[in-house]
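Practice record 12: protein with serine.
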Amino acid sequence: MKKILVIGATGQIGSELTTELRARYGNNNVVAGYIPSAPLTEALAESGPSAIADVTDAKQIAEIVDKHQIDTVYNLAALLSAVGEKKPLLAWHIQIDGVLNLLEIAKEKNCAVFTPSSIGAFGNSSPKDNTPQDTIQRPQTIYGISKVTTELLSDYYFHKYGVDTRSVRFPGLISYVTPPGGGTTDYAVDIYYSAVKGEKFVCPLQAGTFMDMMYMPDALNACVQLMEADPSKLIHRNAFNIAAMSFDPEMIAAEVKKLVPDFQMEYQIDELRQKIANSWPNSLDDSCAREEWGWKPQYDLTSMSQDMIEKLKIKFGIK
Ligand code: SER
């Protein structure tokens, strides 16, 4: 049985991944690692073990690994792209120094490590459509720079020391559970919240801005499926392109309007986010993930929109 530590267990991905991993591997086998400024929810605190786990504190992480005999770490600690641009040194500290701490611990204590990468690991000089698995990666954001570095470091620790590092490049992730904060793709979450609350949505990105997106259940499956994959089949490791859907603000707004006919949207462009979005791919080619470990998403824009609206109505008690 695996013994897992989730670092960033209270964040956008971590909050749901921790619950999913507990359901799969047993509550007591998954430690929810969090920092005091992002405290545990009651549900996470009560359903299994937890620990303060600041990825920038190597001693603290090593102690948790020893105490709970951890063999697998999901490291989800990160500042997203737009907030990273406002705090680049902190983004570097968490996403580079933190990852290096973790890889050193993994080398010593024989842990597998999953630290996600992102569509943000590409930049203006990468091919925009059907962006290949192996291509030019010269991102312009500190977020992207940290993700490329994480990919390279993770591969380095695999090839040099045999650390079992694996990862995916996540698209924008959409969920009704824990909201994201400070990302460029967040508008595709916020739009559903506005629609369900009956508010006009102010879209920060221009019509025609295409990016890859994914519904959270597919993202959670990707993490678990990749970490469970037969290592002899993995030609790539850090990090696999995965894709589910690509859309622009007009397409998601049209889908929302089908479900909430009164829905209205206006544009008020956020220059920083627009610049970041323009530098990212329109859509990724995920054929390596499909071939090497059987990646296959379940949700498209229509089925995701139906589920989001339904679940948010329940969340806010709206008929
Ligand atoms: N969702 C992230 C962001 O927008 C990208 O991985 O920053």
